[in-house]
């Protein structure tokens, strides 16, 4: 049976960055599996823009030569700001061609621990073994669907990650649940496509980002409060930008930083596009009942809405047991906290040789791991750890 040193599951920003850095480790046999940038291309609405600023949207390579700036020059076309989703996908595909041209586009169906190695089964039935496995499979498996909407047909209820073409809602009445970027921008896109849209938010207010831009006039002082990544409020932004520093804070404080940095919010530039959309705040959904081709949604103030469709902009909840390629016996053997794997140096889990990158690593390394800008810290630490381990074990 074929054996390699490292198998990377996923070819999004984290998988590509990990592959780019590990490719620089001499003598290391690395294989990357998955369709490049698939989540960004297939699970986000057409016409969407990145919430993250330019400085926080580069995928990491060892020399930081494959940046958005370089791509813009090579491509010959200026990239607008905020960054359009389709242009970011183009950038990711260019990065893949330049950094890790050899990608196996097949998917991993199953990962099993077999003696001292991992046995992986591909979707076409082929099997091979790997000494290490790096899971960079993204968040598609973690889409959060509230209990009130369980069991309802997809014709009536979908998650924001299920919709690619919002034009199908033209002329329809749509209720959007949520107050984050995906909910608010999906609402704006549907409204602009001719749908009748209402947004329902459990919180009392919709939070719009933008304090960092307002504080730019303070000059150097603003840089003390906000990192270029623009994740989290003043002060917190600086702390979460350095995962190596964050881990020294007490656990309860780390958790509070994560909540503050990841609370639902919309980009400031999105607010004008939502000004004509009714946004109902301070209410929660109590039930949803289908009636023919309509859906009656009841709220906790006793009111109801009869709509053609409900779009769940309810975000994602990490739970590694929901990865379809991880069998229960493997996922249950991992040391976890609320669905997150507890990770050590090099993003290695409690199962030796099994690493997690991206959102699943956020309990250990903080909210930076939810964003593209986290690829630099994650990929560099992973490559450094693997290099050290090979030296210790005689390059095996």
Written account of the structure:
The model has no long low-confidence stretch (mean pLDDT 93). The strands form four sheets. Strands 1, 2, 3, 4, 5 and 16 form a six-stranded mixed β-sheet that branches. The protein has a five-stranded parallel β-sheet with strand order 6-13-7-8-9, covered by helices on one side. A three-stranded antiparallel β-sheet has the order 10-11-12, with no helix packed on it. α1 (13-22) runs parallel beside α4 (85-99) and α1 runs parallel beside α13 (374-392). The protein is of the alpha/beta class and 396 residues long. A hairpin with a 2-residue loop joins β10 (285-291) and β11 (294-299). The chain contains 13 helices and 16 strands. It has helices at residues 13-22, 38-42, 68-75, 85-99, 181-192, 211-214, 220-225, 236-240, 243-246, 251-262, 328-331, 362-365, 374-392; strands spanning 3-9, 30-33, 108-114, 117-122, 127-135, 157-159, 173-177, 196-201, 279-281, 285-291, 294-299, 304-307, 309-312, 336-337, 340-341, 354-356. The chain has three domains: 3-142 and 317-392, FAD/NAD(P)-binding domain (3-Layer(bba) Sandwich); 147-207 and 264-312, 3-Layer(bba) Sandwich (FAD/NAD(P)-binding domain), CATH 3.50.50.60; 211-262, no CATH class.
